[in-house]
Write a structure and sequence with these properties.
Length: 467
Amino acid sequence: MSTVEEKVAKKMGKYATQLSKQMIMILKALAEFLEKNSELNPHKKLAAWIKAGNGTCMFSAPNDCRALLEKRMNEENIGYFTVNDGKGNSNFLIRNCDVEKVTELRKEICITMGNYYQQVSCNLLENAIANSKAKDKDIIEFNNLDKYEAYVLKNKCNQIAKGFTVGVDENKVTGEYKVSAHAPKTYSSDITKTDMCYAYLQTAFSLYGPNSEIKKEQIQADINFDNEIYKLNKKIEKQANNEADYGIGTTYIASTKNTRCYLELNEHGFEFYEKIAKKNSEGKDVYIDHLAFKAARADDDFDLLLEKYMDKMNDKKIFTASEFNAHMSTEEQNFESYRPQRTSEQNFLNMKESLFANVLNIAVKNSINEKIAGKSNENKFKIYSQTTAEVLDGLINDEKPKCMSESAFEDLKETVKKINVDCYEYKYAKDAIANVSMEVHQANRAGKREIRKTENKKLYNTDSKEK
């Protein structure tokens, strides 16, 4: 072994034990190649680091985060070399002295870019926004929520379109929750886009509409199942670290209602599979298991990612290997979910409720889009929630609200009538929308913040010109 190889093996610590002599030679060859053929500063830094006998580490990030992560690493003067694995991830060879910094940068970028994580702590979200290059660094925060409101709001933010990451914190003393998001996600005039306004409307309908009781029972069952998975995962983690032996092998988690996707959890991490259709030699569709995502147990964000992919499945169950094989081999529903099931009538109500929420959201946005232009994020939410409550009150009492024209209100009434919704059943949803506790502040890593609450008054003239 050459002098360089000896230095690498000595200084790389735990990483060296995982590398063969061949891998060490590859690193040396890569360093020599980069030194001779690349003028890029990150490459030269990495090459010099390796040749000095220092340690390296492989690091992965989603491909859609690659450009921004590279830009941030360049700004931080970090040495690296990038390899695309062809599976939706970019792998970075970095200096082991930069592991903590790159981990922090990747998490911040993944949080701000979209829904790579479903939820994080409010502080982590705030730090990510504060350190990002975003022009608007405001945070919208909903306070004084109960566990049901927080749970549903989190899910609604991730179920509409592509979704976005939210922060969720529980006050252990009061039992109340707060949910936060990057303020530009507050309102979108495009009805196909995700925003907090529509997410909160759906939350209010779910928890204060005619299906509220069964919804709360299902949420409590979801929370209990999540706790069960958390305990199971910790046992598997102890096995992986040789701290205990519970005799747990690969665990399969899937929906009891379909076989479209499933998750394999084991000592190495988890893999999430989706069924995709491909043509066979006869031109017929056959479904194969497609590896959509995988996470290693050593990943610093493993728990966050496990939670996200668990939430992609409804009516879940933990399957043994034999149960799983039986379940995936037939379309028949032979296994019961932990989750209380809605009756046929409740399913019908749920379908109508979704349509009602969608129609109301469109009608409200059509009535305020011009008036809301140029408003701050907090005022946009206030205008939306105020208008939604007024329109819903108008539907309940059959009185045209001042914020909507006669023709627009008649069109809405006609549509709601066709859906066959009893608007009176949403009177408590109207109150929840009208009285939601919301504030906006600028993200600040130091924890200091200036809260800007909107006043409880009319934010624009709601008198319609059309009578």
